[in-house]
Amino acid sequence: MSTRPALPQQPCFGPSVPFFMFATGIESSIPTVNGRRVDQMAASGHTRRWAEDFSLVKELGCGFLRYGPPLHTTWLGEGRYDWTFADETLAALREQGTYPIVDLCHFGVPDWLGNFQNPDFPRLFAGYAEAFARRFPWVQLYTPVNEMYVCALFSGRYGWWNEQLSSELGFVTAMKHLVGANLAAMRAILTVRADAIFIQSESTEQYHAASPAAWAEARHRNAERFLSLDLNYGHAVDAPMYEYLMDNGMTRQEYAAFRSTDLKRHCVLGTDYYQTNEHLVLDDGSTRASGEVYGYATIIQQYYSRYHLPLMHTETNLVDAPESDSTDWLWKQWANLLLLWETPIPVLGFTWYSLTDQIDWDRALREHSGHVHPVGLYDLDRKPRRVGKAFKRLIEQWSEVLPARSLCLRLPLAPLHPAQER
């Protein structure tokens, strides 16, 4: 019988909880596009129907929910917060026994902060993260900044969101501020909760060269896809990537600070994979979606060999349509996870994202048309989709079968005495 490596040592102030983390999430993107705020929680109806949504999570059998209060309405200014919505919703999750993986920053910042080119963002965000941790000391699982790589691409290079820049300087600046904020938030949270666990939800990408002429660009892109995690975990980049960073706004002192980070031992590598995560690089350097070529299990082994952290599949979905059966995609992603169980790679959990359908995500939120993107476990009337029923069956069938990984979580979730809350 093969043995599997133990998880990195975590400070633990409660019993070890051996179970597989089945999860879903509430889509909470809040970028600005041409000065207009995109609020996916509001668009899906969650801000009005959150109690109903939480009951669906429990009905599914999901023990974990990727969730966080909308940053732009909660963080009013430096040291100023409106916790009304967070108090109500997080208390409800706690009461029903659902572990939140708290998503603090999801593709946008409040208007008063500007955008991801603001060099004060890391320092200020650390203050928000610490305030959140003090307000909700029972929360243990966090994703401080969601998909840092994607956010930097869309905001700094593609010109789609937030600062809407189309330059390498814009991309590198957004990247160093996003990663810097993620690190600063982790340090701040740890001052409050020493056993906090950070599940980085990051997009896993693969670039394929269409011809020898595209080979060099594909190699650069395949190095660049690791950039946010390299900086986050203090992993050395290769020489060409170092030169690229130095040529586009990062200083040697900034890079040295990223290299000296010591927070990796508190982390789980959360990995997101969609049908659009693999790309074909063309001769002119442009890219287009290639569809699934390698698949999740093959690509994720590259990430694991680089970082050697326990993994969680933190996002996937597929449109529920006659020409694309989302239940087949669910089964395929699950099969990829089972394949990883045959390797030494520690896999902690699996997520279908999101609970309900989304709005305008098929247009990357760039157009405000109100188009329903049918990728949820439930539609916007809160009726289960085929994939929702299939996911519920999967959880029922496999939750007691998989050999569990021990994740050090503090139990019980029951409310503290009021005097202990603040």
From TrEMBL:
> Record's superkingdom?
Bacteria
Residue stretches spanning the membrane? none
**Entry-linked Pfam families:** Glyco_hydro_1
| UniProt-listed GO biological process terms | carbohydrate metabolic process
- Alphabetical list of InterPro entries matching this protein: GH, Glyco_hydro_1, Glycosyl_Hydrolase_39
Q: Which GO terms describe its molecular function?
A: hydrolase activity, hydrolyzing O-glycosyl compounds
**Name of protein:** Beta-glucosidase/6-phospho-beta-glucosidase/beta-galactosidase
Biological source species:
Muricoccus pecuniae
